[in-house]
Amino acid sequence: MQVLIVEDERLLSAEMAAFLKKSFYTCTPVYSAKEALQQLVDNEFDFVLLDLGLPDKDGLTVLHESKKHHPETAYIILTARGEVEDRIKGLDLGADDYLPKPFSLLELLSRMQAITRRKSGLADSQIELGAFLIDLKNRSILAGNVSVELSKKEFDLLSYLILHKNRPLTRTQLSERIWGAISDDDYDSNYIDVHIKNIRKKLGLWAETDWLETVRGVGYKIRLQS
Amino acid sequence: MKLQTKITLLITLSKGAVVLLFVFLLPLLVDRIAFDYTNYYLRQQKQKVLRTIDKNGLDLYFQGDSTYGSYTMLLEEYVSLEITDTVSTLDTILTSRRIIESDTLNYRVLMYGFTVADQPVLLEIGKTSASIEQYNRPLQKLAFYVLGSLMIVTMLLDLLVIKRVIRPLNNIIRHRLINRKFPFGKINPPQIYSTSDFTYLDASLVTLMQQVYEAFEKEREFAGNASHELMTPISIMQSKLENLMLDESVSDEQLGKLAEMLQSVTRLKKIVQALMLIARVENEQFERNDSVNISELLEEVRSELEHRLEEKEIQLLLQLEVDWQISKVNRDLLFQLFFNLINNAIKYNRFRGNITVSNFIGENGRRRIRIADTGVGIPEEELPYLFERFRKSRARSQDGNGLGLSIVRTIANYHGFELKISSPNREGTIIDVLIR
Questions:
Q1: How far is A29 from chain B (nearest CA, A)?
Q2: In the CATH hierarchy, which fold is given to the domain comprising B290-434?
Q3: Which of A100, B20, B73, B212 has its CA at a distance of 20 to 30 angstroms from the CA of residue B53?
Q4: Which residues are paired to B79 by β-bridges?
Q5: Which tens digits make up the pLDDT trace of A41-89?
Q6: Dihedral sign, CA of B401, B372, B279, B386?
């Protein structure tokens, strides 16, 4: 998939590109609104990651211009301004999502995948993990032909780990993703352990859960051979 | 007192003082005038007498005698001539006593020595001063009445004129200052008045208001820029760490260190976010147009904190007697306020403790929302400092950035809410939020 990264902060842009490349996205970085508009005329993109604070023009202008010619492209606004009005304005102008800086690259990727799922309607939402068949879309887990119930948060946690399979995720990353960033100070993310323990217990009744690994000193990871 | 009244009063008082001074000084003035007039009159009389003597000769008066005297019937004036032995060059006017017809009277006396046909003669012309003094009283009275009524008339005139003159000032006060709340919104251009001071005042006020407004805007901008400037490097650090953690060549030990770094960056991010939030609220960058249903809001907070409650097996009891609607607030901020308070109540609670949220009308009829927990409580001496930034209770050694309650206080102030915190017998903590 083609991604246009409109971000004047080159270091950040490079990190995003490096990260997305690992998930098989092809990235084109541009550093100003002018370049962005030029690229949008010349090429087709599946995603535009748009920083609002560009040196020459407001990112919202780019969004407005581009949306006219490429309504099918998905736009994700990235901003450090964090103003509620910007957010509303961006979504009003047809942005698909809004990510306040600083954001986690994992979060960016999940948002992009969510948009792809939403737009295509048919993503491979079924994943085999050991003896389990997990349907991310319908939020169901089958062990053989038995349905296993997880709580909402437990399922969220599991799907986030699946989404970022083969990557160690820290407790902080997990808690931020699942419970949002509502200025919850990081006093302890031990409850993540509690949830993981529950997931292991509930699934462990039916089959091995060795694919859900504890990464010592870091957090958790789902190991999945593709 | 209004300026207009004050000025009028001041002018009237000074006028009154002048009038009184004048009335009191009047006798002196009259005396002075009378004195001068008398002198003048006496000199005139002297000329007349000399002319008569010139015409008629001395003998007509003396008739063999060496003195001559003549006075009016009421002894107000007299003329006397006297032949002297020596030639006198006397020519003077003085006040002196004279006995005439066995009456002792005060006279203004002109004495003049001259010579007629080698005969030295002394001329005296006298005029009583009593006749003048009798006018003083009525004159004083008259002056008092005339000037007094003039004063009242001019006072009314002054009042009208002053009112007219300072009308621009009232204008400026009414239109620029009264009921103007910060930020000022639209500032009308300065007006030109006929009084240059007011033009200057108005122009200065407008400049000042614009400066304040610009400073406010700059502050706003600064918060935005600072946020951007701080968040961008944090973004980069976070992204770099996340990418590094995916690197195959990173050992397990290094991975653990990277995770720790990432946690620190996250912590930094949250502190900056919290400070920015406080700054934005203090800069009044949030609208207060929402009307919030309190039980809905608290339910929302509960669902956000469900995992924390579960973890410590804490019961959150929402015991709202009546449902309240709170208007003119910012919903997101209010959510944050209760989120932080209940989050704290969980954080410092014991395992399997309780949190009770209730509402009631307190003293002064103010609506109160009370959050009571069964936690460790707070030592009395720490209560006053609880809302300070980065202040953490010694009794509450949990992690956290120490900004949660600062945010609570900032949001409460912004909405005109009051916070009351107590920890009776250190059995849990009670926080009351007093709605306006």
A1: 15
A2: Heat Shock Protein 90 (3.30.565)
A3: B73
A4: B70, B125
A5: 888 888 999 988 888 888 888 998 888 888 888 999 988 766 666 677 7
A6: negative
Q: What token pair was written down for B197?
A: 């001071």
Minimal C-alpha gap between B321 and chain A (Å): 28
pTM of the model: 0.60
- Owning domain of residue A20: 2-120
CA–CA dist B158, B154 (Å, integer): 6
Domain ranges of chain B: 3-133, 182-285, 290-434
State how far the alpha carbon of B417 is from the alpha carbons of B312, B361, B370, B436, in Å. 30, 14, 13, 6
Whether chain A has a CB inside 8 Å of the CB on B277: the answer is yes
The reply to whether residue A16 touches residue B239, judged by beta carbons under 8 angstroms, is yes
Residues B436, B432: Cα–Cα separation, whole Å: 13
Per residue in B273-329, pLDDT (tens digit) is 888 888 888 877 788 889 999 999 999 899 888 878 888 889 999 998 888 899 999
Our CA-based measurement puts residue B286 at a distance from the nearest CA of chain A, in whole angstroms, of: 9
Name which residue leads in pLDDT, A181 or A194: A194
- Cβ contact (<8 Å) for B343 and A19? no
Q: How far apart are CA B372 and CA B315, in angstroms?
A: 12
Label residue A190 exposed, middle or buried (CB < 10 Å: 0-12, 13-18, 19+).
exposed
Task: Provide the CB-side half-sphere exposure for B378 (13 A, CA).
Answer: 21
Count of domains observed in chain A: 2
- Say which residues have a Cβ less than 8 Å from residue B159's Cβ, sequence separation at least 6: B4, B8
What is the CATH number for A74?
A: 3.40.50.2300
Answer whether A183 sits within 8 Å of B255, measured CB to CB. Answer: no
Put simply, whether B270 touches A (Cβ < 8 Å) is yes
